[in-house]
């Protein structure tokens, strides 16, 4: 994307959706999931059922 503002907004929406789906999967199936996502700005976002240290 050429417009950095649009890129950040799109990233944020997809990140929230991905984390919600991962959370539902953990609840419904009992799966242990960890996700690490890097934003276009270089920030790190993570999701982990239990704790990230345990899963890593």
Automatic annotation (TrEMBL):
<dbReference type="InterPro" id="IPR036879">
    <property type="entry name" value="TF_MADSbox_sf"/>
</dbReference>
<keyword id="KW-0805">Transcription regulation</keyword>
<protein>
    <recommendedName>
        <fullName>MADS-box domain-containing protein</fullName>
    </recommendedName>
</protein>
<feature type="domain" description="MADS-box">
    <location>
        <begin position="1"/>
        <end position="51"/>
    </location>
</feature>
<dbReference type="GO" id="GO:0003677">
    <property type="term" value="F:DNA binding"/>
</dbReference>
<keyword id="KW-0238">DNA-binding</keyword>
<dbReference type="GO" id="GO:0005634">
    <property type="term" value="C:nucleus"/>
</dbReference>
<keyword id="KW-0539">Nucleus</keyword>
<dbReference type="InterPro" id="IPR002100">
    <property type="entry name" value="TF_MADSbox"/>
</dbReference>
<dbReference type="GO" id="GO:0046983">
    <property type="term" value="F:protein dimerization activity"/>
</dbReference>
<keyword id="KW-0804">Transcription</keyword>
<dbReference type="Pfam" id="PF00319">
    <property type="entry name" value="SRF-TF"/>
</dbReference>
């Amino acid at each position: 994307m050429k417009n950095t503002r649009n890129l950040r907004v799109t990233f944020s929406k997809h990140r929230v959706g991905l984390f919600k789906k991962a959370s539902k999967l953990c609840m419904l199936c009992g799966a242990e999931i960890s996700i690490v996502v890097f934003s276009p700005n270089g920030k790190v976002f993570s999701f982990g059922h239990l704790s990230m240290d345990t899963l890593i």
